[in-house]
Amino acid sequence: MRQKVKDTLEPLTSGIIKDNATFRLVLGTCPTLAVTTSGLNGLYMGLATTFVLVCSNAIISLLRKIIPRKVRIPCYILVIATFSTIVEMVMRKFLPAIYDVMGLFLSLIVVNCILLARAESFSSLNPVLPSVMDGIGIGLGFTMSLTLMGLVREFLGAGTFFGLVVPFMQNIKMTVFILPAGGFMVFGIMMVLYNLVVGEIEKKIHDYKHRHYHAITNPLLKAQEDEEQAKREASMGGDK
Amino acid sequence: MKKISVNKDSVKLVIILSCIALVSSLLLACVNLFTQVDEEAKLRETIGEVYSSPLTDTTYDMSGFENLPKAEILNMFKAEDGAVVILSKSTNCYSAGNGISLLVVIKGDDILDIVSYSHGETPGLGTNALTDDYLARYEALSVSDFTIEGGVTGASPSGKKEVANYTGATKSSNGVRDAVTNAVRAYVLIAKEVA
Amino acid sequence: MPYVILLVINAIFVNNFVLSRFLGICPFLGVSRKTDTALGMGMAVIFVMGVASVITYALDLVLVAAGIEYLRTIVFILVIACLIQLVEIFVKKFSPSLYSALGVYLPLITTNCAVLGVAIMNVTELATTNILYAFINGVASGVGFTIAILILAGIREKMELADIPERFKGFPITLVAASLIAMGFAAFGGLSF
Asked: How far apart are CA A158 and CA A64, in angstroms?
């Protein structure tokens, strides 16, 4: 049971940090650069993409046995385009200000490589629940990095934090950061920082687990665990 | 035998693809029913807040009008007191959004009011050229300060009044200039003709 | 005639697709390791964008006439996907040499947002539109993309020899280089038209 829960949650957590779409997989770079002129814009764009990703992942995973291999790409594109148009229409009705800011990039969610990549590599091979979890994980990771980038660019370029004026930044704000050039620069440098920080943390966790493991392992326990491991492997082999 | 089975396969492909396409377009049609925005009603409401005189139902024929390169007249209304309210859009801006739309109120030969209707501009950058203070600089001008015919750039000829760009927001300033100039051109070439 | 010139300069320099509008960043970063592959990709994009602009513009007239503009995105992306398949088949059959030059890049263009971007822009952003302007805008935007990707590829070829900090190798240093190119292109924004 615990293993099952872990298996279900695994795509969720790995999508946010380990397989972060923006900084690790470098997918969906167009919206990452274009709409992150403020933190709020990044947040809305991320959430819109997450919605499309979760829905299309669920539908594609449901239809994975029906969709013929030869025409799979047009089928995926159809599903994704449907949901992204729905998001566009809903946004136009209920959030007109945000719709005006996103403009073209709301329609362009269709060609965001994250969606097609997840459809091809995950949801077309897995059942519905893990696919939805994967969608939520990757989507939240994407939202997080877009918001983060938006906040940095907004803070440095306009001297505001989620639209609130930061007093001491007003005299030293550098407009270049909300221009296209600053977008590329911030993205590059944040990619380095992300990999530096997350890489260090991952290494620490790995080391800690390793050391911990050896500390608790006395020969008797070790033998017991080996036995369990063998049993588990045998049962898994039987399933196949 | 082999040929028939190939045909069967491709028929299946086509059927599945068209089924999915059909379902998605039906779904979209449903959503569209619920989320349709009545743009004109919304626009008339906003104009009501901006300008006190009620609008008439006069419509203008825009078919012969040639827009400036990056500008477009979205709508034109006549108020009961003779003023003309023009919704003018320019795509000259910083963001990837839907450009800048301005409401320009012209009466007689004076620009009475300019209000930003909707825009997708970057806060702290393009929005600097959309503040009331900046737009007020255009309100001081009259129709005779603009070039109506001639060069497509719409730049003011020497000797006429000109509004300087907002430093650091060149593109958006150009966008505002294009939108206002285009509105004035539409006013002179179409609204005045009808009157 | 002057409008055409404005359109071309605008699409190539002032609002360069990659460096100012952020469309087509994926191939811009992914296929810019070598100058000749970058050129191949650029040529394929110019070709597809030109053809796609004409077809989608014509289709949009039909959509608007039928009152179903909300299907725009879904129709455009399907048409572009089919078009790229067709182009691939045709080029393969009639010009094997061109196919060997473009072949690898053609399928990649399906998810290039620049193509869908220019198709949508042609019907929503251009003030004075007809099918000829749409075509010119498509081709000029493709040329803008090609220029940007060629400059970046040239820089990246030189960067192979440079001593770059370990963490910056790969994407990060490419992005920083792109940032400097974008700063150069930002100057074209001052062109007053």
From this structure: 46
Q: How far is CA C110 from CA B135, B183, C60, C87, C114, in A?
A: 43, 39, 19, 12, 10
The answer, yes or no, to whether residue A240 has pLDDT greater than 50, is no
Could you say which residues from 31 to 50 on chain A have a Cβ atom under 8 Å away from some Cβ of chain C? 33-34
Q: Which residues of B touch C78 (CB under 8 A)?
A: 21
User: CB-based contact (8 Å) between B93 and chain C?
Assistant: no
Contacts of A110 in chain B (CB under 8 A): none
With an 8 Å Cβ cutoff, is C35 touching chain A?
no
Q: How many whole angstroms separate alpha carbon B20 and alpha carbon B31?
A: 17
Which among C74, C125, C192 has the least Cβ separation from residue B24? Answer: C74
Structural domains counted in chain A: 1
Q: Report the neighbours of B using a cutoff of 3 or more CB pairs below 8 angstroms.
A: A, C
Nearest chain B residue to A162 by CA: give it: B123
Q: Which residues of B touch C190 (CB under 8 A)?
A: 170
CA nearest to A81 within chain C: C74
**Could you tell me the pTM of the whole model?**
0.85
Q: Which of A106, A95, A118 is nearest to A21 (CA)?
A: A118
> In this predicted complex, what is the ipTM?
0.87
Q: Indicate left, alpha or beta for C22 from its phi (over 0: left) and psi (-120 to 50: alpha).
A: left
CA atoms of A28 and A25, how far apart (whole Å): 9
What are the counts of helices (DSSP H) followed by strands (DSSP E) for chain C?
Answer: 8, 0
* Enclosing domain of residue A88: 10-174
In eight-state DSSP terms, residue B60 is: -
Query: Which residues touch C166 (CB under 8 Å, ≥6 apart)?
Result: none
Which uninterrupted H or E stretch holds A107?
Answer: helix A104-107
B91 in contact with A at a CB cutoff of 8 Å?
Answer: no
Residue C67, chain B, CB below 8 Å: the answer is: no
Query: Mean per-residue pLDDT for B54-66?
Result: 81
Rounded distance between C-alpha atoms, residue B154 and residue C43, angstroms: 35
Domain membership flag for residue A227: no
Residue C82 corresponds to which tokens in the numbers above? 């089919």
Which tens digits make up the pLDDT trace of A21-67?
888 888 888 889 988 988 998 999 999 999 999 999 999 999 998 88
Nearest to B135 by CA among B107, B175, B191: B175
Tens of each residue's pLDDT in chain C, 193 residues: 577 888 898 889 988 889 988 888 888 888 888 888 888 888 888 988 999 999 999 999 999 898 888 888 899 998 888 888 888 888 788 878 777 766 667 777 777 788 999 998 888 876 667 889 899 999 999 999 999 999 999 999 999 898 999 888 889 999 999 999 999 998 887 775 5
**What pLDDT, on the 0 to 100 scale, is given for residue B153?**
43
Distance from CA of A132 to the nearest CA of B (A): 20
- The position carrying tokens 């991952």 is A202
Task: Kindly list the partner chains of chain C, i.e. chains with 3 or more CB atom pairs below 8 Å.
Answer: A, B
Segments making up each domain of chain C, as ranges: 2-191
Say if A121 falls within a structural domain.
yes
Q: What is the pLDDT of residues A91-103, one digit of tens each?
A: 988 988 888 888 8
Minimum Cα–Cα distance from B26: chain C residue? C71
